[in-house]
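Quick illustration, no need to memorize.
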Amino acid sequence: MSNNPTIRRATADDLDSLVRLEQRTFDYSRISRRNFRRMMQSSSAHFWVVIEQQNVIAYAIALSRSNSRYWRVYSLAVDMHHRGRGLARAMLEHVIIEAKKAQCRGLSLEVKSDNRAAITLYQHYHFETIDLLPGYYDDGTDGLKMRVTFGLENH
């Protein structure tokens, strides 16, 4: 990621940009404006954006639960005009750092089984596939449930 973009917490001022980014990025399972707002207000949602020239160009959302020591990476998106710059990697690293600060044991996530770029990124950070989720996405695509446990990354 170049020095220009910055990562910060999402705010209500980001809503319009987030909805536009979501529309451009996903053609399935989109997060609504209402759900973005709800997550910004939730103490169990950890929500960051990447800002460049006052524009939201990427975001990451991780969810925590009081009865789990794992955070769930709920969504990670990079604007298609800014891909190939390491933004997804930077966002994932940010989530990992924040989860470790919160003394999490690890992260879990779901990813479309045909999203090779995302799967490769997650594997680079030692996520392993722990389950196949047939027909998981609303377009009928299978999902993979992946998980990384901190401290076991090198095993």
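The chain is about 30% helix and 30% strand.
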